[in-house]
Amino acid sequence: MPENTLPKYQHYIDGEAVAPDSGEYLPTENPFSGETWALVARGNARDADAAVAAADRAFETGAWPALTPSERGRLLWKLGDLIVANAERLALIEQRDNGKLIVEVVAQVKYMGDYFKYYAGLADKVQSSVIPTDKKGVFAYTRYEAKGVVAIITPWNSPLTLTSWKLAPALAAGCTAVIKPSEFTSASMVEFAALFAEAGFPKGVVNVVTGLGAEVGQALVTHPKVVHIGFTGGSEAGRKIYEIAARNFKTVTLELGGKSPNIVFDDADLDQAVKGVVSGIFAATGQSCQAGSRLLVQRSIHDAFVAKLIEFVKTAKLGDPSQPDTQIGPVATRPQFEKVMSYIGIAKAEGATCVLGGVSRPDLGAGLFVEPTIFTNVRNDMRIAQEEVFGPVLSVIPFDDEEEAIRIGNDVNYGLAGAVWTRSLKRAMLLTDKLKAGTVWVNNYRATSFTSPFGGYKESGIGRESGTETIKEYLHTKCVWISSDLDVPNPFVRR
């Protein structure tokens, strides 16, 4: 399609579509067809500054700070209804950008409506405390105050969902936001931003600046008016953001990488465990931070379970993600496709045995497909078992007993999630106690909810998203002391 006929997405700043300061645009490609289908604004530091200035004005003056928490909640509720009404339109745009299955993206976007409604209900339920003190003649209490401008930086695998995990509690708290989506998946975010005006949000409360991380993301992270950064992405990028934020004492929530163990014991329902393993690693083409990319199988059932798993995975249908019967779509970007294929080569060189897949499918779409891949004879010290591949690649590691399963499960730098498959309640409780991970599933995998906290240990991040406590990530706690004593005591002695 000629470039001058492509849809062109601008920034969304202060309630308006704004052309990039540079006048430049980035192509956005459909990973299935390989075709450029739209252009998105290539932002720079001046665009980021304009967006932060708009968010800061909206936070300090005008209608937004004048709203009561209940009034903020009503806006969020209306937005939730608009999200559901526009779910299929938004999902089609996101699916075209990142190649996820349309059936999953539609479900995710509809669920976002519930997410915003959950925080709509929470907006006026953050309660302060009266504090009993040991000081006579004074009254002390706490109050919670919105931090200010929040920068939200999201990846390409689930841009709308992962933005909502940060944006909904931030807005419920009374903050304002500047969103920087991945340069690979910006179009759906710009379309989503337009719903805020329709819902009645004041101008400047939500802004979107698109572009490259080095040109926009860094400008937001270093901006003096940004007080909190919410980021989902790789651990190395998260480490850099944390280091920069620390220089100016900004707070952060970082949801980073994972190398999660999916642990199957010999007393498990093996048919159900097979489906759980497939959900953990091959759903979303393995492009999920919580992916169960390390399968730990008790040695007594190892061979039989792997055979059953291979048989099931062979039935998966690869193809056009816009079709409802497709089960595995393409890798979302060419750099990520090349990374996945390089790790398959690394695994083979390390001595792991490829028992399924291990090849690309140039005959499908634009050629960014990787067949579901399973490696056996994997040691936990191999790179394929220690480093995040972020693709449909599974490492199978045998173990003998609970102690060894726990040791192997925890022997990694990440700690985002894990799962245990067993009929034994005692065994399940032992593993959930001992696994060092922010989420542990028992006899299921990949379930999340707006009601439940999500985040990681170790290099999988800092802070939690979802649930009631998350709203406090976006609030300052202030303590107020009021004296009822008209006689001020000795000013040279601390009370």
Automatic annotation (TrEMBL):
InterPro entries: Ald_DH/histidinol_DH, Ald_DH_C, Ald_DH_CS_GLU, Ald_DH_N, Aldehyde_DH_dom. The active site is at residue 255. Keywords: Oxidoreductase. Coiled coil: none annotated. Residues 21-480 form the Aldehyde dehydrogenase domain. It comes from the Bacteria. GO terms for molecular function: oxidoreductase activity, acting on the aldehyde or oxo group of donors, NAD or NADP as acceptor. Belongs to the aldehyde dehydrogenase family. This is Aldehyde dehydrogenase. It comes from Aquincola agrisoli.
